[in-house]
Design a protein that fits this description.
Blueprint (H helix, E strand, L loop, with lengths): L2 H7 L1 H17 L4 H17 L4 H24 L5 H11 L4 H29 L11 H21 L1
Helix pairs in contact: 2-3, 2-7, 3-5, 4-5, 5-7, 6-7
């Protein structure tokens, strides 16, 4: 498939990711429809990328299942919301193993920075909300995924 078609095809998940990040900031939730659309569009990406059923697509699905299972455990520990877990699982269908690993590392760093900022904001306000902070982790997921998804496009330009 042509590079231009692939770049255009990446626009759909980019829009879904931006919408998910905004929704997570505003409501601290990510709609299932967004993650489902992202997951269901992955086979079109596989086809456009020329991936073969074996081993490429099988590896993609296996990695996504493993990542999803890992983050279900994080959810079970109460450390992440269900929408975040589903979003990560859907993104894992789009990214080969090394870009997926880069996204997860970048997501962790951005999520940690976001958490620190929210803790500082809570401390500055002192009389504000009590109890634990609710970190919109979808923002860290969205930013890290957008950075990793843009790499193939930006690398072709240079």
């Amino acid at each position: 498939m042509g590079a231009i078609f692939q770049a255009l095809l990446l626009g759909a998940p980019a829009l879904l990711l931006v919408a998910a990040g905004i929704e997570d900031i505003r409501y601290r939730t990510i709609a299932n429809a967004k993650t489902a659309a992202l997951a269901l569009a992955a086979p079109l990406w596989w086809w456009a990328s020329g991936m073969g059923l074996w081993p490429d697509i099988a590896l993609q699905i296996g990695c996504a299942a493993l990542v999803f299972a890992l983050f279900v455990g994080v959810f079970a520990l109460g450390m992440m919301g269900g929408g975040d877990v589903k979003l990560i699982g859907a993104l894992a269908l789009w990214l080969p193993p090394m870009p997926l690993l880069r996204m997860l590392v970048l997501m962790s760093l951005l999520g940690g920075a976001l958490t620190i900022l929210m803790l500082l904001e809570k401390k500055v306000r002192r009389g504000g909300r009590r109890g634990p902070i609710e970190v919109p982790y979808g923002v860290a997921i969205t930013l890290s995924a957008l950075i990793v998804l843009s790499e193939p496009i930006l690398n072709r330009i240079g």
